[in-house]
Amino acid sequence: MVAQAVTRWARWFVAASAVFLVAWQAAALADVPRQTRVVLAVHGFVLHAVFGKAYSLVPSYFDRSLAFVRAPAVHFPLTAVGVVGLAVAPLPGTPSAVGPLAAALWTAGVVVFVATLAWTVRGNPTGRETGTGGPNAHRRGVDRYANAFVPVVLAYLLAGAYGTLGAFGGLTAAVAALPATGSAPNAGALPALGIAQTAHLLAAGTAALLIFAVGFRLFPRFLVASPPRALVAAVLPAGAIAPALLAWDFYGATGFRVGATLQAVAVVGFALAYAALFARSERRRVGFYAVLVGVGCGVLGVTLGLHFAFVGVAGELLAVHFRLNVLGFLGLTIIGATYQFYPPSVGTFRGASDRTALASVLLVGAGLLAEVGGALAGSEMAVLAGRGGALVGTAVFAGLVLGVFLER
């Protein structure tokens, strides 16, 4: 009964994630305010997928059962409604109260999520008990190592929630207005975080690090292969440290460069590890190809990040950097894992097939490449065409996932 309830709510989160993904692509094509696009992409699409699958996977990976079965039902409306409010807050004509209220709702959902998982694993906080056994007993060392980084993921999520309250809810302004205590003002104790810093904390610190930690447990089982242990050892600490440095010294000098380098080590290392898994495996499924394209996009994305850190920020490439990392790396990895968990071929509706799923992956991947090429060549038409292709691809993905859920 517990497992069925968690599974049912996981589908709600994944369904909402798919809807927010399509909304993000439409917003990118319509060129709505940047904050709206970031919210739909990170707070909406990426994190709702993270929430849904974390409720299902993290307890079992720590050899536990979810402590509060009703937590996802409380959490879901808070973050889903919160994302809608955060997305419309920057639009002209939106009442000023919408942003703070939406930020409070979204943060309340995050608190429910973090508190539930923290209480669930309270007797096993580092994940030494993995639930790994039988034919997977040889994976226990990697599983323990990966589990140890999940608490770091939760810490980044809380930091991102603070940043969201600051960017949309006026939290940092309110703290700055308080009387100073001691020799330092209160604002110095609670630094302001902009939307870009918050996005890095949530996308790189929460989502990417969770993909590294969970991915090193999940993908070897999917592909029935083992990743190179040296890459596992390097990717996780680099991915844990980098987001903090990027947010702390954002567009700065040494800290930003070290953070960008470590993030590149993490993403490229994970890409190489996944490529090794893929090459060693005899299994070929559409979801695995999606992840392969995703990690390739991630390599391109962190390459641009290194350019920003060591050469200089190119304004026309900022949007491409964001889309390569969030739609490419995170997005296609999420799409690939979703197709593995919820195979389109189990549907009986028209178009429910692996061929259609592969078409969605190709449309998103080709759209991203066209957008990159258009940005480098200064061709607005190519950029728009690429975003249009990505919109169609994500709409196909959402249609397949929602169709499977409705039939179930």
Q: How would you sum up this structure, described in words?
A:
It is built from 15 helices and no strands. The two termini are 17 Å apart. With 408 residues, the chain is an all-alpha fold. Helix content is 78%, strand content 0%.
SSE layout:
Layout: H1 2-30, H2 34-61, H3 71-88, H4 98-120, H5 140-147, H6 150-169, H7 171-177, H8 186-189, H9 195-223, H10 229-248, H11 254-280, H12 286-310, H13 315-341, H14 354-377, H15 380-407
User: What would you call the shape?
Assistant: globular
| Spans where pLDDT lies below 50 across 5 or more residues | 180-188
Order of helices and strands: HHHHHHHHHHHHHHH
**Helix run count:** 15
What Rg, in angstroms, do the CA atoms define? 20 Å
Write a compact overview of the structure shown.
Helix content is 78%, strand content 0%. The protein is mainly α and 408 residues long.
Which tags fit this structure?
15 helices; 78% helix; 408 residues; mainly alpha
